[in-house]
Amino acid sequence: MTSKKTFNFSHRGLSPWEYALERFFQILPGFLSWAILISVTVLSFTRPLEAAIVVIAYEIFWLFRLFYMTLFMVLAYGVLEIEKGTDWIERCRSLEMPEKSLPHLQEKIKALRKLKTLREWFSCKNQEREAKEILRQKVTVPAFDSLYHLVIIAVANEGRKVVEPNLRALQHSQFPCGRIVPVLAVEERAGTGQREMAEALQKEYRSSFFDLLVVIHPEGIDGEARVKGANVACAAKRAAAFFEERKIDFERVIISCFDADTVAGPEYFAALTYHFMRHPNRLRASYQPIPVYHNNIWEAPGFARVLEMGSSFFQLIEATNPEKLVTFSSHSMSFKALVEVGYWPVDMISDDSAIFWKALIHYGGDYRVIPMYITLSMDVAMAGSYWKTLINVYRQKRRWAWGVENFPIVMRGFLQDKRISFLNKLRYASKLLGMHVSWATVGFLISIIGWLPAFFAGREFSSSILYYNSPRITALIFNLALAALIVTIILAHLLLPKGKPPNPLLKRFWFALEWLLVPVVFTFLSTLPALDAQTRLMRGQTLEFKVTEKKR
Amino acid sequence: MLLFLRKAVFYPLLILYCLVTPYTILYALGYLISPEQRTLVKTGLVSVISFPRHARVFIEGKKFSKATPTVVSDLLPGKYHVRVVRKGFGYWEKEIEIEPEKATQLEPVLLLPHKPDADVISHHAFANMVPGTPEAKILAWQNPQLDSLWKIDLFFKRETLLSRELDIRPGVSIVDILYREKSPVVLFLVEAAGKRQFFIFQPGREKKMAESLNELLPTDADWIDWNPKNASQIYFLKDGFLSRLDLNHEKIYPPIHSDVLGFGVHKKHLYVLKKDYSLLETGPEGENPDLLLESETLGTKIFSGVSARYFQIEVLDRDLLVFLSDQGALISNRLPYHHVDQGVRGVSRSHALDEEKVLFWTGHEIGAIDFQREKETLFEKEPEEEIFYAGGKDIQQAFWAYEDSHVIFLDRASVFLLEVKGPKPYLLREIVRVKPDSRIYYHEGEHALYYIDAQSRNLVKRKIVE
User: Fold this and answer.
1) What is the pLDDT of residues A469-526, one digit of tens each?
2) Residue B34: how many CA atoms within 13 Å on its side-chain side?
3) For residue A241, is it within any domain?
4) A76 touches chain B (CB under 8 A)
5) Burial track B106-141 (b if 16+ CB lie within 10 A, e otherwise)
6) What pLDDT digit, counting tens, does each position of B223-254 carry?
7) DSSP readout, B105-160?
8) By CA distance, what is B45's nearest residue in A?
């Protein structure tokens, strides 16, 4: 238990040995990314034959990976669709007495065995499986009526136009609003205007909820950086006092940390409650919805639309692998766990993923992320003009990629921890490192460097059989990859909000064409920012938290 | 459930990847499993790009389904007979050797049409011509008299008898012509009443005959040269003095250098080889001299044994100079320095800017020096030299064609197309017969040959392939 108490989940306050270790692991991802890019580039000039072989092997690897990801993207989308019409409140209630509800459910399943009701049938089968699991594991399910939702909404410079829909969505929640406590976590540095806006919203919406708190995060607190984590941690501490005053046990509180632009669907909190209730280790878990960027999807430029859709798909695929799932963007967790782990890190930009790693190390590996096949809608990072949006999106992706800052801390934590098995450490570390290195290299390798051996072929290589065969193989691989792209385009269309655009057919057709931008967008607005982030971390630079401008 | 499915799919995919990748790489390298021998065998391929495209490829008499450009792969090593056929064109055939893991490139195969696309540019009967200027003009004359000189505008398809525009008096005969490719200036050495002088033709700046006749430029100069992009400055070498004629001001300046053995003009630089074998690079007026080669060392070793009255210097790049003596000795600043001892009649650099390749020809031979390709020797690396053809009778002109894959040359009164790339022996084909003692001009951009027809003596433009 010593490591649990002493582990410092921060880049600051380290001993010289810890600092050296931290620097080594800060350098490692960037070093590996650059080493891969440079070595393949150099190999393309010096040993094009060997480079072409490496490129072929890499491209086949990505083709297989693409097929694999597309398959699970389709399956995850299927689950998302299946659970679309689910009455989560009813499910929560039935979870309280599974032994009683199960026979009814089984009868219902029999009645639903028709093609017309296939979706409901699948949904009920899911419910049946989960109910059986609860009975088998003899899980004590908390009472639905005893649970509260704490929703922290981080507000920096977002206007009322962005924040208010968030509260209105909470107001329309299927989960009883009387047990929802929204907290507007406002940055003091944003100015009095923001404070006044928050207070006006509090006045207007307070009566709709159990309570609505406005917490002003003071600027310049010692040990804090100008990051969202510091703001929401401050709000969570204030909320802890609020629940303590009312003698509400933290075990009965589920906290959701939202961005200002996050809009939860009416079913979100009911679904979250269900997932919380049904899980035996509910207090040692985070709950991850699928983020979609639908709030302003039709107003956003094509490149941003494609990129954010790609992010949603990535989360959809990740959801199918809960063993390796990490919290991302707006997410939920047990409030008890949040308090026990010491809230979000106050000096890290990637608070969303950092809280998972912090909890994982705090609980000696006994922490997980439970995927929820339910969406949370957010804004595409628009900023007025096309050019500004481009910069905005680039900065946002760099901030996301700055999640690599977790790697040195996690590695330090793993080295100190004796409770997590070596295999699990290896699994998490390789996933974290592999994901970031791949993120910073794949776009360049496939879109640019992969073509170099043929492009800069010398006399020797250009008269080799490989010189002729490698472009043919690459073309075949790209054609096969096109099949995956077509599936992605179809899913993207299915996932889009229904009937919103002014010129639906034209807009949707144009949207399909925009997917052809994938190689460019992916390389320069995903891979490049990731490489930028890793290079900065490698050089010991810090990334200033810049609030992504969001305009509607 | 999905987690289980993930694992259930992942491991078979991993196994499949481990099988597919080595197989694909081996296939890419040219390995195949021979059904007869049940072992891995190395194969080769042949890539065929033809002009015109969509020709059929026959290998050992077997027709391949894909038309050109195409790649025929999975060929076991050995000799194959390849024939490329397209309707309306003469076929192309060759015996080629397929090597394991190697690609034999037949790029490009030029198919000559049965009915050539020949366009009569001018129906007058001409004696000779000189190639065009940047304004796409050809100068052609009907007889050796200057008043029979025509200016033919290829773009607007207009022809003008210069004597109608200029005051060209009769009795002035053309003795010699000096021109540079892409230069707007053409110098005609003319003779009238036993007196020789230069007639300077500058399109767009046509002057009266008297004004165009230039007595300042010595007719007995050893070597005259100018930068095609700055044709108003004409440099000439006479009695060891290098001087400059300014056409704009019609003025000859005092000699820039004395004791000069040769010179060349390249961009804004003048390259001067002195009689003591030192080599200088200077500005256009001789300013800012930069000593490139000191006389006592390498210069003496390179130039002292060569009997030459003067050298013309071709600057291929700032670090690659070619020296051609009046006796036809071809020297460069790269090892082994001496490339051809004598008899070289002309040199032509590659059209490709990134290539350091020089075509040269003597009366009997055509060859090239590729300064980028280096021959492995025991001591120093040397540029690759290759004689493409050695059966010429009296080769007058030669041009790189089709991105240096072919050479078009004039031998006596016949124009030939010679392959200089791909498997040997190089194919030689006669394209056309032209009027004896006339020049030809090949325009690489248009892939067109301009010549005076042997029978009609008309000026004809002919596309080599369509």
Assistant:
1) 888 898 899 999 999 999 999 998 888 887 666 666 777 788 888 888 888 999 999 9
2) 11
3) yes
4) yes
5) bbbbbbbbeebebeebbebebbbbbbbbeeebbbbb
6) 999 988 888 889 999 999 999 988 888 888 88
7) EEEEEEPPBSS--EEEEE-S--SEEE---TT-EEEEESSSBGGGEEEEETTTTEEE
8) A465
- The residue from A382, A412, A444 where one domain ends is A382
Residue A180, in any domain of the structure:
yes
Q: How close A122 gets to chain B, by Cα (Å)?
A: 13
Interface-testing mutation among B2, B96, B97, B404, with chain A (most A C-beta atoms within 10 A):
B2
A154 with A126, same domain: the answer is no
Both A76 and A163 in one domain: the answer is no
Residue-level pLDDT at B213: 63
- Give the 3-state DSSP-derived string for A17-62, with helices as H, strands as E and coil as C: HHHHHHHHHHHHHHHHHHHHHHHHHHHHHHCHHHHHHHHHHHHHHH
- Whether residue A398 is contained in a domain is answered as no
B208 has pLDDT over 60: no
Of A56, A75, A129, the CB nearest to B24: A56
Number of domains in chain A: 3
Q: Are residues A133 and A149 in the same domain?
A: no
Q: Shortest CB distance from A464 goes to which of B6, B102, B373?
A: B102
Scanning every residue of chain A, which has its alpha carbon at the shortest distance from the alpha carbon of B7? A321
Q: In angstroms, what separates the C-alpha of B434 from chain A's closest C-alpha?
A: 38
Contact status, residue A326 vs residue A406, Cβ threshold 8 Å: no
Q: Quick one: A261 and A338 in the same domain?
A: yes
ipTM of the complex in this document: 0.85
Whether A423 is in a domain gets the answer no
> Nearest CA to CA, how far is A422 from chain B (Å)?
21
Is residue A289 within 8 A of residue A300, CB to CB? The reply is no
Does residue B11 belong to the interface with chain A, where contact is any CB pair within 8 Å?
no
Does B20 contact chain A (CB < 8 Å)?
A: yes
Strands across the sheet containing B70-75? B70-75, B44-51, B103-110
A470 close contact with B: CB closer than 8 A: yes
Are A359 and A378 within one domain? yes
Which of A59, A127, A465, A469 is the best substitution to test chain B (most B C-beta atoms within 10 A)?
A465
Q: pLDDT of B311-342, one tens digit each?
A: 999 888 778 899 999 999 999 988 888 999 99
Can you say how many angstroms the Cα of residue B195 is from the centroid of all Cα atoms in its chain?
Answer: 36
- Report the candidate in A370, A281, A365 with the shortest Cα–Cα distance to residue A325: A370
Whether the Cβ atoms of residue B261 and residue B275 lie closer than 8 Å to each other: yes
Can you tell me the distance from the alpha carbon of A441 to that of B456, in angstroms, rounded to the nearest whole number?
67
Flag if B21 and A465 touch (Cβ within 8 Å).
no
pLDDT tens-digit series, residues A319-355: 998 888 999 999 999 999 999 999 999 999 999 999 9
Confidence label for A1 from pLDDT (cuts 50, 70 and 90): very low
What are the chain B neighbours of A72 within 8 Å (beta carbons)? 2, 5-6, 9
Whether residues A122 and A67 share a domain: the answer is: no
Q: Is A52 on the interface with B (CB under 8 A)?
A: yes
Q: What is the number of CB-based contacts under 8 A between chain A and chain B?
A: 82
Place of tokens 């304004």: B135
Domain boundary among A99, A114, A137: A137
Q: Determine the structural domain holding residue A22 and report its residue range.
A: 17-80+433-538
| CA-based torsion, A296, A298, A301, A304: positive or negative | positive
The answer to whether residues A316 and A231 belong to one domain is: yes
- Angstrom distance (rounded) from CA B331 to CA B237: 19
- Assess whether A96 and A68 both reside in one domain: no
Beta strands in B145-259 (DSSP E): 149-153, 158-161, 173-179, 186-192, 195-201, 213-214, 223-227, 230-238, 241-246, 251-252
Q: CB contact, 8 Å: B105 with chain A?
A: yes
> Taking CB atoms and an 8 Å cutoff, what residues of chain B touch A468?
45, 47, 71, 73, 103
